[in-house]
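Suppose a colleague, Dr. K., hands you the sequence of a protein chain of 92 amino acids and asks what its three-dimensional shape might be. Before reaching for any lab equipment, you can write down a predicted structure in C-alpha cell form. Begin with the sequence itself:
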Amino acid sequence: MRSENTPFVGGPLDGRVLPVLVGATGQPPKSYEIPVPNDDGRPPTVHVYRRVSGRPGRLGLPGGWRYEYDPEGTARDGGGLRRLFRRDRSGG
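The predicted structure, expressed as C-alpha cells, is then:
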C-alpha cells in the first residue's frame, strides 16, 4: 500500500508530519484516531483528527490533505459500509 506524508494541526501531534496510508482512490481516511494508554489502568484516551483539504495548489485544486485536531470528536463516525446504490425493495 502507498502512504503520504500528512501534516497534523493541533492537539498532541501539532506540527508533526506522519506517513498515513492512502486507499485505492489516493485519499487518506476521513478521520485518524490515536489511542494514548493511561497509567492507572483505565481505557486508553482516544484523540481524533479530521481530514481537511490542504493548501490550494495551482488552478485552485487542493494540494493534498492535512489533519486537524477535533477535541470533541468521537472515536467512530457511525462506522459500517456505505452503499452508493440501493435496490428498491418495494418489488416494483
